[in-house]
Design a protein that fits this description.
- This protein has helices at residues 17-29, 50-60, 76-82, 95-111, 131-139, 150-158; strands spanning 5-10, 32-38, 67-72, 87-92, 116-121.
- The longest helix is centred in the middle third of the chain and has 17 residues, at 95-111.
- The chain has a single domain (5-124), classed as 3-Layer(aba) Sandwich (Rossmann fold).
- Helix 4 links the parallel strand 4 (87-92) and strand 5 (116-121).
- It is globular, with a radius of gyration of 15 Å.
- The protein is of the alpha/beta class.
Length: 165
């Protein structure tokens, strides 16, 4: 019997408690979850270098046994195929997320019909948390402690220039 592998793709710039929640929930649905960190997202310049985003995710998910973290630079469906994945798992916070993700799902289905897209709704208290919101709060010196894992708080503390973006 083959393993059911899922990919949780994203930029994770930075990883938030919302991301951690979706990944942990996905880990209960699949035998293995690969968190795919987009090395250089096309639509934005990342604040945190890819290798550091991987390390932050690994620390944030250290208690989850069936999760691994990797970077990728190709199409997400090619990354998924190369790892034998049957699904892409995407978190949704609001209707606006669904509109974008639905468009991406249609394109991904065109490229790789054998890979399903699975949507998980954000948990209530985390439904407003976004990486861009966290970066904005941190840039103005606000506390992000309740929004991100402790390792991310430390990252911002260790990189004070990131607070002035």
């Amino acid at each position: 019997m083959s393993q059911r592998i899922a990919i949780c793709p994203g930029s994770y710039d930075p990883v938030t408690y919302g991301h951690v929640d979706i990944i942990k929930r996905a880990s209960t649905l699949f035998d293995h979850v690969v968190v795919g960190v987009v090395r250089r997202p096309k639509h934005k310049e990342p604040l945190i270098p890819a290798d550091e985003r991987v390390a932050l995710l690994q620390e944030s998910l250290a208690d989850v046994q069936n999760v691994s973290v990797e970077t990728f630079t190709d199409l997400v469906v090619e990354f998924a195929r190369a790892r034998g994945a049957c699904a892409l798992v995407k978190g949704l916070r609001a209707v606006s997320d669904f509109e974008w993700e639905f468009q991406m799902q249609q394109l991904n289905h065109h490229l790789a019909a054998e890979i399903e897209t699975v949507y998980l709704a954000a948990s209530g208290p985390l439904s407003f948390v976004s990486s861009s919101g966290v970066r904005e709060i941190a840039a103005f010196g606000g506390s992000v402690e309740n929004l991100v894992p402790p390792c991310v708080v430390r990252w911002f503390d260790d990189h004070p220039t990131s607070r002035s973006m």
